[in-house]
């Protein structure tokens, strides 16, 4: 999100392993009639890539549309790309495609409470095909962001706090966050009926995973 309190849109600056995993999978299922969603898309760089591969792609965020890839004149006529500017906490099934093959969400889920994230992923699971893939990342509890983080010793279900003043300024993150461990992310997805293909900690201490709708 580009709301001046949710940090920098890193995805628009570089591709990481989760971005690459998503594109590799998309190439494997090219021709599939399912849709793709870039959740908490920011500028929407990854969603643009998926649309370029032919997937009917929905970008979802609170970012003004003028700050997304949709600002490019005519792009929505050239590519199967659309934008929904909405708070994900009030998303409904009617907001989403009924046959999602790929759900991608990078550096976003930690802006929700654990309960909100669970509800959101359960909503997406209901709209996803069996064996569809979820590519998900969250800021890590043991990353730099976790230094002097007020929620560090809380259970994940209660962990929703502001970063330290130093980290907030360093990363331009002024909203409360729920930082994750690998187990936390796996349990979140398991509770929403996704199995874990792989989960890992990045070199920056963030938690990333690939999950399958079961």
Top-tier CATH class? Alpha Beta
Share of residues in strands: 15-25%
What is the chain-wise order of helices and strands?
Answer: HEHEHEEHEHHEE
Radius of gyration: 16 Å
Strand numbers in spatial order across the main sheet: 3-2-1-4-5-7-6
CATH homologous superfamily title? Vaccinia Virus protein VP39
Number of helices: 6
CATH architecture group name: 3-Layer(aba) Sandwich
Per CATH, what is the topology?
Rossmann fold
Helix content: 25-40%
What number of domains? 1
**Overall average pLDDT:** 93
Note the gap between the termini: 29 Å
Largest sheet: 7 strands, mixed
Shape: globular
Plain-language structure description:
- The protein has 214 residues and is of the alpha/beta class.
- The protein has one domain (10-213): Rossmann fold, CATH 3.40.50.150.
- It contains six helices and seven strands.
- The protein has a seven-stranded mixed beta sheet with strand order 3-2-1-4-5-7-6, sandwiched between helices.
- The model has no long low-confidence stretch (mean pLDDT 93).
Keywords:
single chain; 214 residues; alpha/beta; Rossmann fold; 7-stranded mixed β-sheet; 26% helix
Summarize the structure.
The protein is an alpha/beta fold and 214 residues long.
SSE blueprint and pairings:
Elements: H1 17-28, E1 35-39, H2 45-52, E2 57-61, H3 75-78, E3 81-85, E4 100-105, H4 114-127, E5 128-138, H5 165-171, H6 182-191, E6 194-201, E7 207-213
Parallel strand pairs: 1-2, 1-4, 2-3, 4-5
Antiparallel strand pairs: 5-7, 6-7
């Amino acid at each position: 999100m580009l709301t001046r309190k949710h940090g920098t849109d890193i995805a628009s600056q570089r591709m990481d392993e989760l971005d690459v995993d998503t594109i590799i999978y998309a190439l494997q299922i090219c021709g599939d009639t399912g849709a793709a969603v870039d959740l908490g898309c920011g500028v929407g760089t990854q969603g643009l890539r998926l649309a370029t591969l032919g997937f009917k792609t929905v970008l979802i965020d609170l970012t003004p549309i003028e700050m997304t890839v949709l600002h490019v004149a005519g792009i929505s006529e050239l590519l199967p790309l659309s934008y929904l500017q909405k708070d994900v906490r009030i998303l409904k099934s009617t907001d989403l495609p009924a046959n999602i093959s790929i759900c991608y969400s990078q550096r976003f889920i930690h802006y929700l409470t654990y309960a909100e994230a669970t509800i959101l992923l359960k909503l997406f699971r209901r709209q996803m095909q069996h064996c569809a893939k979820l590519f998900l990342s969250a800021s890590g509890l043991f990353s730099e962001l976790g230094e002097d983080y007020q929620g560090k010793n809380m259970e994940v279900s209660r962990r929703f706090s502001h970063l330290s003043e130093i980290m907030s300024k360093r990363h331009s993150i002024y909203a409360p966050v729920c930082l994750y461990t690998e187990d936390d992310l796996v349990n979140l997805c398991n509770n929403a009926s996704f199995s874990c293909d792989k989960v890992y900690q990045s070199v920056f201490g963030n938690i990333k995973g690939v999950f399958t709708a079961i």
